[in-house]
Amino acid sequence: MVLFNYSTREVTAKIVYYGPGLCGKTTNLKFIYE
Fold first, then answer.
1. Of the candidates 17, 20, 22, which has an alpha carbon nearest to the alpha carbon of residue 32?
2. What's the rounded Cα separation, in Å, for the pair 23 and 9?
3. Could you report the per-residue pLDDT of 1-34, keeping only the tens digit for each?
4. Is 16:29 a contact under the CB 8 Å cutoff?
5. pLDDT number for residue 30
6. Which helix (H) or strand (E) holds 31?
7. Do the Cβ atoms of 28 and 18 come closer than 8 Å?
8. Are 33 and 26 in contact (CB under 8 A)?
């Protein structure tokens, strides 16, 4: 789902990050955040 706010020039997106446990999802997201 993506929302465009043209007046503030912002894009808001909801992303689902799915996969089996212990495959590195949290580690990957922490790396992207940093």
1. 17
2. 36
3. 899 999 999 999 998 989 998 999 999 889 988 9
4. no
5. 93
6. helix 25-33
7. no
8. no
* Amino acid at site 5: N
- DSSP β-bridge partners for residue 10: 5
pLDDT in the model for residue 32: 87
Q: Which residues pair with 13 in a beta bridge?
A: 2
Tokens (6 digits) for 27:
């580690």
Phi and psi at residue 9, to the nearest 5° = 55, 45
With contact defined as beta carbons under 8 Å apart, do 1 and 13 qualify? yes
- Which position has the token pair 């089996």? 20
